[in-house]
Specification:
Elements lengths: L1 E5 L6 E7 L1 E2 L7 E2 L4 E2 L12 E6 L2 E6 L4 H8 L12 H5 L5
Antiparallel strand pairs: 1-2, 1-5, 3-4, 6-7
Length: about 100
């Protein structure tokens, strides 16, 4: 019997499975380690933007959150004239001052 492991704090699937041990006290039952489940996790349709997370006794597909600071910086356009094209030769010499 396979068990599927997930992170103890976030519930994110660890992309790791292992064989469960049979219970020595209860024939026909399996010992499931902490932070593991016998439920087969679904694959995230877009793994670059989604995670498979075990929460409330089931697997869920969740969008990877963007940190607020990064989101704010991505929304702002750079000030006019902030970027300047320079040649590789100039960059190797220390760039434009």
């Amino acid at each position: 019997m396979l068990v599927y492991h997930y992170d103890a704090q976030t519930g994110v699937y660890a992309n790791f499975s292992s064989e469960a041990d049979p219970s020595p006290l209860e024939p026909g039952k399996w010992l499931v380690p902490a932070h593991a489940t016998m439920l087969i996790p679904p694959a995230a349709p877009n793994p670059k933007k989604q995670l498979t997370v075990f929460r409330d006794g089931k697997w869920n597909i969740e969008t990877i959150p963007v940190p607020p600071a990064l989101k704010t910086n991505l929304e702002k356009a750079p000030p006019e004239g902030m970027w300047q094209r320079i040649s590789i030769k100039e960059a190797l010499k220390g760039g434009v001052t």
